[in-house]
Amino acid sequence: MTTGLRPRRLTSPKDLVEAALAAPERLGELEAVAERYAIGLTPSLAALIEPGDPADPIARQFIPDARELIRDPAESDDPIGDDAMSPVHGLVHRYPDRVLIKLVAACAVYCRFCFRRERIGPGAGALSAADFAAALDYVRARPGVWEVILTGGDPLILSARRIAEATRALAALPQVKILRWHTRLPVAAPERVTKAMARALMAEGKTTVVAIHANHPRELTHAARAACLRLSAEGAMLVSQSVLLRGVNDDPETLADLMRAFVEARIKPYYLHHCDLAPGTAHWRVPIARGQELMRLLRGRLSGLATPTYVLDIPGGRGKVPLGPQWVVSEGTGAYVATDLRGVEHIYVDRPGPGGSSQR
Ligand code: SF4
Asked: Is the pTM higher than 0.90?
């Protein structure tokens, strides 16, 4: 049984205990974690939690856990190397044809596995007008930048007016064709994804992409799907982002249901992230071999339309790479071993036509 809508956003251990989302005897543990990392849980997501079930996959994503204070030596405050690739404050330039601009360092909810958890929180403000202008200047001077990714934090927590200003400024750069917004708001606070906000994301002659973060099929509620439809109705292309999380979605049934829910909401499954090496997140990570096995099982269950790419962000800012699994392996002599969905191996001999590999 769910608890029904709660009226306000929960931002402290006391809030969570009073809402019966954490046992009173856990207050000390929650307060110790809250001294280091922000808490944020919206009414929409709180309403999905089964009270009294510590294994609830929604609760686990947002209720603090003492294990967050255990740091693995390999974990880093900047696990994907944003700082090393940041020529201008608030801008990351990792790939030749795209840049990322962090418009705001706060979110509607605070995920306990967040890869930028050392940099975001309620005290962190939006990018200043001067820093945004410097980011625009940086992009203006680089004709090869085809795509700008707006992220944070969650940039959709800004007002529709602020979003429209950013859209207009970026749309004025002729080489920029794609504006991609990364957000959790359609599942965290779907009522805030209004038609006005959807319009603010759009610019004539540009393609708007919205990458929606959700990790469990229950997050794709009727209200969340309606918010996604408001975005697609205004012309946005929708893609998904999820994190592979132990105890939340690390089984084939849940992952398949999540990916189908995305497609039903007109969201193309895009990335399934291997959980980054952010501080205090070891308890979330599953072995890569398990992630690959899950992807193998998904391939047998799901249409290609519903299959995401499982990716690793290489620490140090080296970028994303697909983690497989490998379905086809070279034997080195023009022969390949292809493994079918039942795990049976087949030899495939490559037969390129005249002209070799220069045809395309
Ligand atoms: S919504 Fe994204 S940026 Fe915000 S806490 Fe969750 S993972 Fe981090």
From this structure: yes
